[in-house]
Known about the structure:
The complex is a heterodimer. Chain A is mainly β. Chain A contains no helices and 11 strands.
Amino acid sequence: DTAVSQTPKYLVTQMGNDKSIKCEQNLGHDTMYWYKQDSKKFLKIMFSYNNKELIINETVPNRFSPKSPDKAHLNLHINSLELGDSAVYFCASSPRAADHSYNEQFFGPGTRLTVL
Amino acid sequence: GQNIDQPTEMTATEGAIVQINCTYQTSGFNGLFWYQQHAGEAPTFLSYNVLDGLEEKGRFSSFLSRSKGYSYLLLKELQMKDSASYLCAVTDSNYQLIWGAGTKLIIKP
Lengths: 116, 109
């Protein structure tokens, strides 16, 4: 009965590889997000997907591409991985559209990505 | 630029009270959240403030002053399980959630 799930939990890979992280939510939420949390613990929004619209953070390199096959899934594909991509990636969902002030976010367990 | 400031780390004693402060400078304001994050786990929602004043929820309370760009999270009757990072986050005028770096709270017996 996990609300927001991510796979894999741990991902270790070589520089230059392409990898994907999957996210699914069974809460019926309209909005999903991808966050990156680096070693300094800053949570940085990467993308938000609002059912009809994908909002891209302009600071995210285009090597990162979100893919949403349906409202319950928002996967993250990363091309040509770099050392600086090592971080914990969190998927989250919220019940309302992104343009709503009270929009509690429910987080997945995180994927710890290590690029060697 | 947009900025959320919180102390990096705080230490408190089991059974005591601790106040974690958060100040923010953002382009607009549409609400402030507090989240708790245990080491190696995901953040979980604690509280939401959009109007000035105190919101109480059990042992935890959150206060907001919009004119001062200031909030605090008050934790009472501290328990060892309260050892975690506490993240302050503000929704700006574009409904983007801007996150602070978090305050690591260490509880000692």
